[in-house]
TrEMBL record, chains A, B:
PANTHER family, alphabetized: N-ACYLGLUCOSAMINE-2-EPIMERASE
SUPFAM superfamilies, per database record: Six-hairpin glycosidases (SSF48208)
Annotated GO MF terms: N-acylglucosamine 2-epimerase activity
Enzyme class: isomerase
Protein name per its UniProtKB record: N-acylglucosamine 2-epimerase
InterPro entries in the record: 6-hairpin_glycosidase_sf, 6hp_glycosidase-like_sf, AGE/CE, AGE_dom
Keyword match Plastid: no
Pathway: Amino-sugar metabolism; N-acetylneuraminate degradation
Upper taxonomic lineage: Eukaryota, Metazoa, Chordata, Craniata, Vertebrata
Keywords (A to Z) from UniProt: Isomerase
């Protein structure tokens, strides 16, 4: 293993020197532990190009101008290979278009706004289906013309529906839509914290409720979404929830602080068997940068340290494939073989999360080791996932880094992780370079 | 491609010569298109050894003498890595133990009978849970002490429950148990042919009912199970169902007879999108030998030809990896990339089905090309799946044939496909060699 980030004084004491090196403009001064501004600029340019490329790909190939919404199953060359519309991906694409439109000058284009509005209208018209409990559930998958085909007994379709509606309301100024997002959020909170029976899962004696990391992560992400830049009373409304989410996420630090486990008991204890030992390094890294955002907003230095040491460094140490590079999809903390057939594959999204996490951790601390990690993940990611022939990124590689599934969009890969990562990294690099200027 | 099986006269006209070659005892006479009796004997001995080895492995490691039933999550070296009990695998293990006990002299041992009875008792006590419709559903997964943890909204747990109960009743003579199997069978038939709402799936407008090959295959398998050697009135009772199952399976021959597709419409037409184009070569091969059994019982020469040409030869031609050997798990008939992450992996069970299918097809026709195919699949299978260190077989290889998941038992791999294949192949080789004697 290359030099780990060290806690406390030794790392801090090295910082001034390293920071000086960082902004040296001579490329030949680059050495282990230092990065030049040239490198930051090189990264920014490549990332900017990749983002433009990804946006162009989805604008060109994914819009269904006949029935509305977005095609999500898009082959290597842009051809639609299945017309089903996955609701997670509809919501995420609306959100991403709006976020780009709202916050990045070069994407403030009518065609992006129109696509986002069309996607939002499709979602509002078709995604919500009434469940047997009389509550609104969102479908997981729709036919091309909007007929519900599958409903998951989880909260995630609703989460991406809320993200889409809130972000869309920010660019259109539609207050009804914002209200709708908040109402759906109330429903979600009820399912998670009061009574989950509306989700439709039968209550079984062996099915003990658990704290699955995805749930507090998604809720925390939604709190960020709903409160960003809004009046104090909105932030106030969700303050206790945000704090609960952070605590729920922190419960996943297990084994005396040496591992992040994907599911724990409601009391924060390790669960038995495979479920209890499961690790998902990409997911832990994503939680890491969610926590880093909170720590920055709240100026909580302890949370920042925990986020970096436990949710960024640990998953990288455990999850990085020392032989072939890249992050494993799943691991078992005791080294048993996971039962997920795809456990050793290299997926695009954990690498996206790792890029965001390391660059954010570096931005907040200026510890050069974190930028070295970013560099390592960047090299693997940019050398393996982008498709130089047809644009956008492949999503699924073998352990050895060969493309295993060559489509650009599928049931779980849409216009989301790639552009979100590129967008966030570009902005962080902008800030880092601006400070230098 | 090496010589395909040809229909009709040319194949038949070559048969006498080939058959003469087949039973030449001099190994040096082995050539392309011929197999010596020495080869058959070599295969039988290896297969017999592998079967003994598999039985010994599961007898040694899988019995839960505290709570009853079988551990199904068993690591490479035999160690239990999860105590959950998967009901499909409980039922299959009871069935396999009983079948071996009942039909193979060397397995007629008290410890095998006792284990089967203990597994049956565990299933009867814990597997059935009452569903919201008041009908009996079987759980998919139980805790070690038998508490239901998950229920699938399909018929398969019930299918393996029936197989277990019927086969167990044959060795114990327990008529109540046989009756219970038949009653569960009535429930299944009702779900499949009359009203599936008891399975618990919500009716959604986009979720069009389909003919999924697994359903008629399982029912046909159960008809074979429930009628074998029983009085004429039992066979009579299920005759129409068997015929319906065969017709439902034959509907999966699509694209002018050039492909077997895994799901078709209820009218036997191709479905749109990925679902419609999906191929599962191992499953088609399994259907092939199910149909071959029916064709032999009914002396239906046309069904035999269809079974061999369409369900044995075609899936092999399409599904065999010309570069690395082995059968792909999933394919798309139009050559798109499947969306299943594991599509290009080599799983143990399709190879088990292929061995049975080719040896049965050869046994019934004596066409040497079919034995050549068997030989090819045999070489790949025996060279890649068995674990020379700790016994039993690995289940999951990468496309290139490297072990990707090293456990011997998992949520879907238990004491079933390996021993069923070895058991059936040993018996077929016994018959082939006995005829020579």
């Amino acid at each position: 293993m290359r030099g780990h980030v060290t806690d406390g004084s030794s790392g801090v004491s090295r910082a001034p020197l390293q920071e000086a090196c960082l902004f040296t403009v001579c490329p030949y001064l680059e050495q282990k532990g230092t990065m030049s501004v040239v490198k930051l600029e090189e990264w920014r340019q490549r990332i900017r190009k990749e983002l433009d490329n990804a946006v162009a790909f989805w604008l060109k190939y994914s819009h269904d101008t006949t029935h509305g919404g977005f095609f999500t199953c898009i082959g290597r060359d842009g051809k639609v290979y299945d017309e089903l519309k996955y609701v997670w991906l509809q919501g995420r694409q609306v959100w991403m278009y709006c976020r780009l439109y709202r916050t990045m000058e070069r994407f403030r284009k009518p065609e992006i706004l129109e696509a986002a509005k069309a996607g939002g209208a499709f979602l509002r018209k078709f995604a919500r289906v009434s469940s047997s409990s009389g509550q609104w559930k969102c479908a997981f998958c729709l036919t091309r013309d909007g007929k519900a085909l599958k409903i998951q007994r989880t909260i995630f379709s609703e989460c991406f529906y809320i993200m889409a509606m809130d972000e869309l309301s920010r660019v259109t100024g539609d207050k009804d839509m914002q209200l709708e997002a908040e109402q759906m959020m109330e429903q979600l909170i009820y399912w998670v914290r009061v009574d989950s029976s509306g989700l439709g899962r039968p209550q079984l004696p062996g099915d003990v409720p658990t704290n699955s990391m995805a749930v507090p992560m998604m809720l925390l992400c939604l709190v960020e979404q709903l409160t960003e830049g809004r009046a104090r009373d909105v932030a106030q409304k969700y303050r206790e929830l945000a704090s609960w989410c952070v605590q729920q996420i922190l419960q996943h630090i297990q084994r005396d602080g040496t591992a992040i486990l994907e599911s724990v008991s409601l009391e924060g204890a390790e669960l038995p068997g495979c479920q209890g030992r499961l690790q998902n390094p990409g997911h832990a890294l994503e939680a890491g940068w969610f926590l880093l955002q909170v720590s920055a907003e709240q100026e909580d230095e302890e949370l920042r340290r925990t986020a970096i040491n436990k949710f960024v460094e640990l998953p990288y140490q455990d999850g990085w494939d020392k032989e072939h590079g890249g992050l494993f999809y799943f691991l078992d903390v005791d080294g048993h073989c996971p039962t997920q057939l795809e456990w050793n594959m290299k997926l695009w999204w954990p690498h996206c999360e790792a890029l965001i996490a390391f660059l954010m951790a570096y931005s907040q601390t200026k510890k050069p080791e974190l930028l070295e990690r970013f560099s390592e993940v960047y090299e693997y990611t940019l050398n393996h996932f982008p498709d130089p022939e047809s644009g956008e990124w492949f999503g699924y590689l073998t352990q050895e880094g060969k493309v295993a599934l060559d489509f650009k969009g599928g049931p779980f890969k849409g216009f989301f992780h790639v552009p979100r990562c590129l967008y966030m990294c570009e902005r962080m690099l902008d800030d880092l370079l601006a400070k230098k200027d």
